[in-house]
Structures are given as structure tokens and as C-alpha cells.
Amino acid sequence: MNVFIVYAHPSANSLNGALKDYAVQRLQAAGHSVQVSDLYAMEWKPALEAGEVAGHAVLAEQEKLLWADVVIFQFPLWWFSMPAIMKGWVERVFTHGFAYGIGEHSELRWGDRYGEGTLAGKRAMLMVTAGGWESHYGPRGINGAVADLLFPIHHGILYYPGMDVLPPFLLYRSDRMDDARFAAACAALGKRLDALATTVPIPFRRQNYGDYDIPAMTLKVDIAPGVVGFGAHLA
């Protein structure tokens, strides 16, 4: 497979840097082709300017996306989301006509999005480190359930242009890492990387396949009755 890693951490000597290097080695050893966009090393410009037209840098990233069978977004969880430089990568690379604004609207379908689109057929996975304990991100944890925190990325950034989104690889208490924990983390990550082609994606509902009223884009009354919030969009 072709695997594209979009990586955001300012320090090459960080835990994230070590995990990224391990992932590249593991994937290549298994025979996969790997490309990495190290956003800090590239000095990626995150700000989308008014009237910006996609230039060489943006087009090169879009080519990597089109080349990839699997896209891995690796980052530390900062202020409950991805680092600003990675969000800026999304804003500049996921351009109109490439990742959104595709397809005609009608009474039967509302463009090619949420399960359809330019990136349909590709797989995506987040590799996320967090400083807090796993319990802090549990269903009743003070930080909120991690599935809810990542929903805007999983559903709104990755699934929107058509990618199948795999469950994330999560590493908690990232500031408490010794050799034994790092070895265990690499072993767990290795298993996830080995199963990129076979892991069952998060079962998000597809937009144009009968679950939503068009053009209101709300779930039909007989679909998950009484269920609201992010969970209602899981089949």
C-alpha cells in the first residue's frame, strides 16, 4: 500500500518524533511505500489567505493524498484538537473542488460528501498523543469522551471528502514515558499499522444513501429515533 503520514510536532526528538520514525520503519519493513509531510520541518504556512490560489506547495500535498491508499494524521492533542499548523494544512490543502464543493445538489443527493467525494476509497487514521490519563477522556471524564472530541476531525475533515475513517491510535499520559512504556506503545502501534487494510472503519452514516432528509440534511424520523448528538450519525 501507499501510506501518507501528515505529521505535526515541532521537535524531532519528541515522543511523537520517535513514534513517527517507528511507524515509517514498520510500514517500510512490511513492504509499503511511505511519504511523510513533516509540517514543522517543511515550515508549512498555515494561514489561508483571502483569494489564495493553490500553488506548488498545496498541489504537491494534494498529489500525495491522491497517491495514498492510507493517510495517517499524527499529532499531539493540543487544546482539544490538532495543532494549528495541521489545521492550517487542512484549510489550505482541502480546497474547493478538491475536498468540498463537488457534485450537484438535487432533491435526491446533496453533492459528493460524507462517504463520497475525491478521497473515497482511501483510509484514514489518527495517531494522537495526550498528556491526560485515559480516564480523563472516558465517557464521564472531565475532558469529554475522546470520540466526541475527535468527531469534528473524523467526521468533518476526513469522512466529509469520502475517506473511510479507522478508529484512532491513542497514547495517553505522554509526559510519563519510560523505556518499558515506549516499547509497549510501539508494539501496540505496530499491530495497528499491520492491520491498516483490514481494520473495520468507524460506521458513519453515508449522506446520500437514505438516512437523511434532503435538503434539510437531518436524519429521517425513523432513523435512530430519540438519539441526538454525534452518536446519531453512527450506523
UniProtKB/TrEMBL annotation:
GO terms for molecular function: NAD(P)H dehydrogenase (quinone) activity. Pfam families: Flavodoxin_2 (PF02525). The keyword Methyltransferase does not apply. Residues 1-192 form the Flavodoxin-like fold domain. InterPro entries: Flavodoxin_fold, Flavoprotein-like_sf, NAD(P)H_dehydrogenase_qn. Belongs to the NAD(P)H dehydrogenase (quinone) family. This is Flavodoxin family protein. The lineage of its organism: Bacteria, Pseudomonadati, Pseudomonadota, Betaproteobacteria, Burkholderiales.
